[in-house]
Amino acid sequence: MNKEDQLNRIKEDFIDCQKVLLAIGDETRQSILLVLIGTDCQTGLRVGEITEQTHLSRPAVSHHLKILREAGIILMRKEGTKNFYSIDVRTKLGVLKTLVADIEELIFGGIDDESNGN
């Protein structure tokens, strides 16, 4: 793949990552993610439990959970009238890994070839 193709792929990666980057760029959402990461992904947490652990108001937690859900980072599971939130193990955070890998390939990809005289 030539450099122009690699740059185009990285541009597409950035577009794919926009919602995720915006969502995880906020310190409050990072706090919520840390709380969710530390829980059992099977059961998840309710808004009240997240509120207790983050010391944020219920409306603030609900607002940030909505942004994280829309970015594809967390899941909501309904059980009767209760909602449980957890990290999505098939999360959109994987697009960040792709972005970083593509950037590394562009920057470092030719280094081994050059050092071998290719």
What is the gist of this entry?
By secondary structure, the protein is mainly alpha-helical. It has helices at residues 3-24, 27-37, 47-54, 58-70, 94-108, 111-115; strands at residues 74-79, 82-87. The protein is built from six helices and two strands.
Q: β content, as a range?
A: 5-15%
Could you say what the CATH topology is called?
Answer: Arc Repressor Mutant, subunit A
Name the structural class: mainly alpha
The secondary-structure element order is HHHHEEHH
Strand arrangement in the largest pleated sheet: 1-2
In terms of per-residue confidence, which ranges show pLDDT below 50 for 5 or more consecutive residues?
A: none
CATH architecture: Orthogonal Bundle
The largest pleated sheet is described as: 2 strands, antiparallel
Highest CATH level, the class = Mainly Alpha
Helix content: 55-70%
Shape: elongated
Describe the structure in your own words:
This protein has one domain: Orthogonal Bundle (Arc Repressor Mutant, subunit A). The chain is elongated, with a radius of gyration of 19 Å. It has helices at 3-24, 27-37, 47-54, 58-70, 94-108, 111-115; strands spanning 74-79, 82-87. A two-stranded antiparallel ribbon has the order 1-2. The protein contains six helices and two strands, in the order H-H-H-H-E-E-H-H. The mean pLDDT is 89. Helices cover 63% and strands 10% of the residues. Helix 1 (3-24) runs antiparallel to helix 5 (94-108). The protein has 118 residues and is mainly alpha-helical.
